[in-house]
Amino acid sequence: MLEIPETISQVSSGVVCLAFFKGEEQVGTGSGFLSNELLITNSHVIRPREPFDAVEITFGDQDSNPIAPVRFLPEDLHSTIIAESLENEFDYAVLKIDEPEFRNRAQFKIRSAERIKVGEQVLFFGFPFGSRHLTSHVGYISAEFWLDSVHRLQIDGSINPGNSGGPLLHLSLGTAIAIVTRTQTGLEKDFDELLFAIERNVEVLRHSRGKGITISMAGIDPLQSTQATMTILGRLAKNLKRTANVGIGYAFCAEHILATGLFNKQSSRSD
């Protein structure tokens, strides 16, 4: 069994933070990790639903060994992809980035999760909620199953938005056995229905104003006020959905990444 503090110190330089920007506003974050001199993350991390015009990459040892972020335009980032399975498949992306900041860093060894057992202890890393500071959590494999041709592990641990793409490290084996991919809130359907209702109301109000319909009560346009209120409620609902957490997450097992053949000869440098 690995010693947790020493392990975190050893691997932190190989954990990657991807921060996405629209102008000066940070609109999302994701995680990744290095293996065999390649960057592994989720497809949905590098293809976020929120439009972005730049991504900045830093590393898990940024607090102790700070560097200037490595910055890419979307098309330049996507040009580094050498293997990918989209979000509705196995949800991974493998990137080959030759920037000098990626050299001489910890490399995770990857191993199939075929013989992993429920109840075994794991360690996972990432940059949740827009943080640029590496967070590390200990959890347990609470379920192991196949769904839609994907080998999945359910994790009893605090996985949050922003952890996506990070490694799931098996504490006995010392290898990455999966890539963190999903979080579960327990309220996702309710939030989705609320967001749909709010967005539909905002669209109706916008359409009404576009037709030139105006109402004035004591000098106040209630349509405009209601639209502003709905917009605020929509933003609040998105943040509530993003931060709600019941301590359950999912990881897609490493055999899907290993099937690319890119990691058959993994770096011998210690992870």
What structural keywords apply?
alpha+beta, single chain, 2 domains, 32% strand, Thrombin, subunit H, 271 residues, 7-stranded antiparallel β-sheet
Domains counted in the coordinates: how many?
A: 2
Order of helices and strands: HEEEHEEHEEEEEEEHHEH
CATH class of the largest domain: Mainly Beta
In whole angstroms, the N-to-C terminal distance is 14 Å
Characterize the main sheet: 7 strands, antiparallel
CATH architecture grouping of the largest domain: Beta Barrel
Q: Give the CA-based shape.
A: globular
- Which segments are poorly predicted (pLDDT under 50) over 5 or more consecutive residues? none
Report strand %.
Answer: 25-35%
Supply the helix-strand structural class.
Answer: alpha+beta
Q: Treating each run of at least 4 consecutive H or I residues as one helix, how many helices?
A: 6
What strand order characterises the main sheet?
5-4-1-2-3-7-6
Mean pLDDT: 84
Overview of the molecule:
With 271 residues, the chain is of the alpha+beta class. It has two domains: 4-185 and 245-258, Thrombin, subunit H; 188-243. It has six helices and 13 strands. The chain has helices spanning 4-11, 43-46, 74-78, 188-210, 222-243, 255-258, and strands at residues 15-22, 25-35, 38-41, 54-59, 70-72, 81-85, 92-95, 121-126, 135-147, 150-156, 167-170, 176-184, 248-253. A seven-stranded antiparallel beta sheet has the order 5-4-1-2-3-7-6. Strands 8-9-10-13-12-11 form a six-stranded antiparallel beta barrel. Strand 2 and strand 3 (38-41) form a beta hairpin.
